[in-house]
User: Fold these one by one.
Assistant:
Number 1:
Amino acid sequence: MATESSRGLSDHIRGVTVTTLACLAGIAATVVSAMVIGIDPASMVTRDQLAVVAAFVVVQYPILYAVGVDISEFGLKDNLYVAFMTFALWFLSYTVVLSTGVTF
């Protein structure tokens, strides 16, 4: 394609890839949080859920590199975007899981 740069992905495809992976990582963090930590009120007093989210944020970078996203160009804004999108999707979906009582 004429719009592709030397790194292999166009800016649009790069943005879509980063956003999609961050959102899917947030949903996956919800499933892992619900399975490992649980959904009972007694387990909500720990901060282990945030460790799960942080792990999913860190795991995204090797996956992005393997897909072909040049993560060496990531600045503070890009890193905050990945962390925020992962956290936001985890927070929203985990809230739904906790309020509805869905079990995995």
Number 2:
Amino acid sequence: MDKPKLVLVGNGMAGARALEELLKIAPDLYEITVFGAEPHPNYNRIMLSPVLTGEQTVDDIVLHDVGWYAAHGIRLLLNRTVTRIDRARRLVHADDGTVAHYDRLLLATGSTPFILPVPGHGLDGVIGFRDIQDVQRMIAAAAQGGHAVVIGGGLLGLEAASGLAARGMRVSVAHLGATLLDRQLDDAAANLLRATLEARGLRFLMARQTDAILDDGHGRVRAVRFQDGAEIPADLVVMAVGIRPNVALARSCGLHVDRGIVVSDTLQTYDPCIYAVGECVSHRGVAYGLVAPLYEQARVAANHLARVGVGRYPGSVLSTKLKITGIDVFSAGDFIGGADTETITLTDPLAGIYKKLVLKADRLVGACLYGDTADGAWYLRLIREGRDVAALRDRLMCGEDAANDAGAASDAGHEPGHAHAARQAA
């Protein structure tokens, strides 16, 4: 009997992880076809920053090479974009004329970088920071030297800026907000981060809204103009102002889309034959852009594709790390806090260390760490588990080992250094 056919549209981290999980559970269940829009096999997109800095190569970040697909009998179709889904006939059509039939379809179309729709956004020298091609273009631009303007002071923006600076460009970061990483850090941690990056030569233009990107008269960027009328010269402009779920394909075939492709707790769309995972998905009104939630989704989707049918995806507690060599940043959960929360803070300005823990009803609900992130994974685990930490609260700041050792905790207040811990109502 012929095997049922599974088609995966999107060969990124979420889709490939779903296949990996599926093959663990039911390796022989499906005849599998994979469409990838890029010419590369699955690679670790979150490691593009070390490729930009030159610390790693493209080959270093490949997660599944072409041989992996062949070894598992998977038909891999690279550099082909699926343009249409015929749900009535269960067919997908690609831009090169390829047609594939499916019994189950898994959409993992990811996201696209948001390009500000300002005048000049289409000029040569204006790029996003999303894939290998973007990184290759940045490396080529950096080889020519000059001045780069990165628009956006979030995670991707700072990683792009750091990478370009490491390759010798003069770099300015224009950010709409008043502080860097304003979705991931509180003001204290953000100010420490800014000081560290300025010491590395980066320049920051805060509370600046881009008005236009200016032409050199030959179709190439020459400057960026802000709404206050100020201009800054630019040989390269990197847009890092966010991503948008790539839902055009799903919308065109009539699937329910609301910000992302709407899925249930089983990662199933409104069409029972079609599942979706990753950045293209909207689950309980939330679209995730970090890798950990995408992998959690992949595991649940694989469970149901394998016909086990017991997994549920309830949503994720988010955590963030910045991938810039020598800078340790971590945040998770509700690290800002509110009227019904309590904060424990530790600051050591000389050592460049700042830690903030947020508690609510004797449970850890958020953490923000700068300079020392060794216990980030433990704090994230406590947040996810919702454990009562009343018995640990006086030792929480000392870390997991000390929290489990009352003797070590009693000495924690006398360790060398100038750190000061303070507990206060938020």
